[in-house]
Write a structure and sequence with these properties.
Blueprint (H helix, E strand, L loop, with lengths): L10 H14 L12 H8 L3 H13 L3 E4 L3 E4 L4 E4 L6 H7 L4 E11 L3 H7 L7 E10 L2 E10 L16 H9 L3 E12 L2 H7 L6 E11 L5 E9 L3 E4 L1
Parallel strand pairs: 3-10
Antiparallel strand pairs: 1-2, 4-5, 5-6, 6-9, 7-8, 8-9
Helix pairs in contact: 1-3, 2-3
Amino acid sequence: MALDTTSATPLFQQLAEELRNALRAGEYPPGSQLPTEHQLCGRYGVSRVTVRKALEELSQRGEVVRRPGKGTFVADKKFQRDLTSVLSFTEMCRRMGCAPGARTVKIALEPPDEEAAQELGLKKGEQMLVVERLRLADGVPVLLETTRFPEKFFFLFHQDLNNASLYQIVKEQTGVVFTHSLKTLEIVFASYQEARYLDVAKGYPLLSIRSTVWDDSGENRYLCQQLCIGDKFKLMV
């Protein structure tokens, strides 16, 4: 499988494109290991310098991950998250061809702090419903989600929220459709408990997305924080 030595395109770029085509064709699925540098040299009839430059180009574009002492691996598929729209995790997974999942970690009625009470329009003495769920894609944990609802949505306390879409349940039960949001992004580091849920190391960098979400009327709203494994997401603004 020789490259074209007469072409004006450098050999490392030709090799990078050959490997990229193999990735697109599914020859090397996400998470799998590419052939070694030595194997690629033999397969394509090029030097190790050429192979390394090709792999470096793929690495810089996020298509592969190079792990010293272990080899080069195909990068996991990233979830594309459009921050300008309101899209449920369930719908995002389906658009990416993944099976969405959810496991309820906690559901409880709690007194709000001052900021949450103001955002949710709660009166003194009113409680909020707190729902914490681990969100899964094809059975793999990708984010930890905590949502806070005002009294109108307390019916969720009695719902089975495992492997269910909150948006769909709310729409079916109340007719409310959430259409607008205001988001704040921040890099945080996983606590011991968060790391256990997400199957990452304690202190692993996570992307925190805090959202205030409301419907067209502005009267129905909830608060949400999603702690995402950062290298599994691609954000669009």
